[in-house]
Amino acid sequence: MAKNKRPSIKNEAQYEALRDQGMSKEKAARIANDPNSGKKGGKASDYEERTKSELYEQAKKVGIKGRSKMNKKQLIEAMRNN
């Protein structure tokens, strides 16, 4: 991919709104490209209700570095701030 070209964004308006809120390009793109993006009433459980293994797998999907050394509380913090 060219250096200045970004990946395809499915929900351009949401991407721009998230960028305006200060989110990184990666996080804004991940949210805007989610198939459930923009829908209310998400069914995801709270991070605290998930197991450490579930949090680890989600952190792996979004590319959080250092996740293997994190405890559950640290994984939750990283997920919220990524």
TrEMBL record:
It comes from the Bacteria. GO terms for biological process: DNA-templated transcription termination. Residues 1-52 are annotated as: Disordered. InterPro entries: DUF7218, Rho-like_N. Coiled coil: none annotated. Residues 17-29, 43-52 have a biased composition (Basic and acidic residues). Pfam families: DUF7218, Rho_N. Residues 47-78 form the Rho termination factor-like N-terminal domain. This is Rho termination factor. It comes from Arthrospiribacter ruber.
